[in-house]
Amino acid sequence: MERIFEILxxxxxxxxxxxxTMLGIPVAEVEKAIKEAEEKRTILKYKTIINxxxxxxxxxxxxxxxxxxxxxxxxxxxxxEHIYRFPEVISAYLVSGTYDLSLxxxxxxxxxxxxxxxxxxxxxDKVQGTTTHFLLKRYKDDGxxxxxxxEIKRLPITP
Amino acid sequence: xxxxxxxGGKNPRDFVSQKADSxxxxxxxxxxxxxSTTEGVISLGVGEPDFSTPWRIREAAIHSIEKGYxxxxxxxxxxxxxxxxxxxxxRQYGVSYHPGQELLITCGVSEAxxxxxxxxxxxxxxxIIPDPCYVAYSPCISLAGGIPVPVxxxxxxxxxxxxxxxxxxxxxxxxxxxxxxxxxxxxxxMTKEELSQIASLAEKHDLLVISDEIxxxxxxxxxxxxxxxxxxxxxxxxxxxxxSKTYAMTxxxxxxxxxxxxxxxxxxxxxxxxxxxxxxxxxxxxxxxxKSGEAEAQKMLHEYDRRRRIMVKRLNxxxxxxxxxxxxxxxxxxxxxxGMRSEEFARRLLKEEKVVVVPGSSFGQHGExxxxxxxxxxxxxxxxxxxxxxxxxxxxxxTT
Lengths: 159, 400
Hints:
The complex is a heterodimer of chains A (about 160) and B (about 400). Chain A has helices at about 1-10, 15-25, 25-40, 75-85, 110-120, and strands at about 60-70, 90-95, 100-105, 125-135, 140, 145. By secondary structure, chain A is an alpha+beta fold. Chain A has two domains: about 1-40; about 50-135, Alpha-Beta Plaits, CATH 3.30.70. In chain A, the strands form two sheets. Chain A has a four-stranded antiparallel beta sheet. In chain A, strands 5-6 form a two-stranded antiparallel sheet. In chain A, helix 2 crosses helix 3. The radius of gyration of chain A is 21 Å and the shape is extended. With about 400 residues, chain B is an alpha/beta fold. In chain B, helix 4 crosses helix 11 and helix 6 packs across helix 7. The N and C termini of chain B lie far apart (about 70 Å). The interface between A and B is medium-sized, with 16 and 28 residues.
């Protein structure tokens, strides 16, 4: 089954028929496996990687380091949940090292993000401190190179 | 006294040796010009990976240049590379070669093939090859002064060369059997039993076997059998291999030969006066490939395997009967349904549907009636190309 997910993770538009041929297993089995994975939330969603910079859309991203106080019994989970519920938070990770949570936050402008940090994030009881890093350029996202992917430079016919 | 331009002297053409003149131009070359002038072409006509060399390997090569590794290496090749190669052959196939005397690093497996033939063939001696086979086998034998003796292989036996078919071709002049499995252009692989029969035959008639295993790293759903690992075969085998296909390193030109020290010594003599050594940067890259390239190689292998299955299914669906290739990255479907000769098929397919395939006849007389389709191409291109081929076959179905 893992091989089905590898294929879909690389290209979500690969059809069950193609997967069935690629792996030599019946279409019905592929469809069943995908359905089950969707139900179990092994497959969360089918997404598209978009380079928004090409659309000149006013948008900014920031990586925010958050230092928090863990709570008895629940550790970091409750405060993490409190934070990731904000729609501005695109990704949230608990990390090792000098801070605890690493957030990817999206806003319309720097002001927007600053406002989120100062009005929503920093005032939270369990938040001890934050450091905001605005993204200047995206080179690679989810394994995809954004600007200059390598072209195939082969001759059209070789022995 | 020098001859001046317009006098009665030779045309430049007349300076060309009879040997060079007698070589027939590659069927692939003829096609090249035609393709270059057509727009929007999808090519299944290539013989190399569509991946760039893994970054780790490229990065190691760049680093070696920065560090000043820009000199000749030992004629044999970098000691570290030979050491790693010996370990790799031992680990993968259980066959051991002494890195000091039994391995030679060459400029691609192409040079290794040329050296092997020149080192063993006397004028007029015969070398048995499968038909169809890689385009260089026959010319290289001729250039070495030998006579190529093709043994027909057919779709019914999966394009493998059978010992029983070889034996009647053996004469007093036969020196060697040259085989290349997994095969270009057919994608055929041979079983251990089939190879063992060839090994026994070689022993019976005291022949050498030159085994071109450049596609050893691209074998699907089974293990690659290294010819020299067969019982009793090592001392009469010249094993040829390389890094081009497995690690997507075609342009680096680095390959190798492994054989008994006396044979390697003979090959080395020719190598030292011609190539001298393989490019050091390429050898450095090959070192890195052996050290850390396995994971990337496996990833590429899995990707080829998926594309292989798609291509074979689509070809069969559209009426071009195709065996499932067990190795390399070629499918070799029959074009019988169209009633066309393979050159005509390839030419018209390019003209009408802008898809490049290689006519089977480029690989020998018995490649006629087939074409070579390479699946080292992005899946989207394969799907589109096969859609176009499907349209073409529907229009030219000679059986309806």
